[in-house]
Amino acid sequence: EKQIVSGIAYSRDEAKITLLKVQDRPGVAAAIFGPLADSAINVDMIVQNVSDDGRTTDLTFTVPKADLDRAVKVLEAKRGDLGFQALKPDSNVVKVSVIGVGMRSHVGVAKQMFQTLAEKSINIQVISTSEIKVSVLIAEEYTELALRALHTAYGLDAN
Amino acid sequence: EKQIVSGIAYSRDEAKITLLKVQDRPGVAAAIFGPLADSAINVDMIVQNVSDDGRTTDLTFTVPKADLDRAVKVLEAKRGDLGFQALKPDSNVVKVSVIGVGMRSHVGVAKQMFQTLAEKSINIQVISTSEIKVSVLIAEEYTELALRALHTAYGLDAN
Lengths: 159, 159
Ligand SMILES: C[C@@H](O)[C@H](N)C(=O)O
Ligand SMILES: C[C@@H](O)[C@H](N)C(=O)O
Prior knowledge:
The structure is a homodimer. The longest helix of chain A has 13 residues, at about 105-120. Chain A contains 5 helices and 8 strands, in the order ββαββααββαββα. In chain A, the strands form 2 sheets. A 4-stranded antiparallel beta sheet of chain A has the order 1-6-8-7, covered by helices on one side. In chain A, β3 and β4 (about 55-65) form a beta hairpin. Chain A is elongated and about 50 Å long. In chain A, α4 (about 105-120) crosses α5 (about 145-155). Chain A has helices at about 30-40, 70-75, 80, 105-120, 145-155, and strands spanning about 5-10, 15-25, 45-50, 55-65, 85-90, 95-100, 125-130, 135-140. At the A-B interface, β2, α1, β3, β4 and α4 of A face β2, α1, β3, β4 and α4 of B. One threonine sits at the interface of chains A and B. One threonine (THR) sits at the interface of chains A and B.
């Protein structure tokens, strides 16, 4: 199908938190996001992949940079209950999204986006998709480089 | 803020593929989705979390069930180039999404969704979010149980 990329969006006001090795059993995600919700912490991305070992998995989510310290405190206080192995905060990321109109499948947009970032040697840390977007987290230092390269790749450079 | 959940969506026509321990360096995501795009395989969700060890990470994506065998073949053919440790296909999943209107933050919807699934002892395998949705992959056998519980939890049971 014809894939129309209508724009590139980005947010520099995101910080990520990764909880390493949470228990992969019912109730754990609820025990993480319950306290975050009760503390009125804004969460944008939530990314969890399957468990490798059938027992644990990692969970990453993003918050506004101003909420990072508070979110870390809330989760550290729950560490005993939750039993995660480590908590890694990182405010050094930017979220970059390619927005597609009429994307019945993400595969073409994903291929182009990932190839463009690869050509600039930009490592992709986190990937997430929605109906209209393919989003990645990359190191914040690459923001302008990534945006320029993606605009060119999708022919969005017009003035 | 007032979070309005406008509906629950689901798709039974999704199969997931997890590539375990892909190299976490620029070019790897491109090398995975390039061949998939060239084989015209439809990809819906793509979920990748950060690397635990700084060297490898896992990547999960979903395809229509009818595309699963073909997607597996494409990637197995690239195994030498890509160097992943294992490929795990799984057609036994359903994607369930809570759709929120005016969700400035996903945290309230996520808390409710995850608590509801936990109460039914439904394990959450994969989590991904977008502007208007919080989506999970769970085992397909829980489809009706999850949908009923979520409709009740969000007060969408009206007849
Ligand atoms: C890790 C977490 O998502 C867990 N599987 C749960 O269902 O809550
Ligand atoms: C794992 C994969 O996303 C890799 N980090 C890349 O940039 O391509």
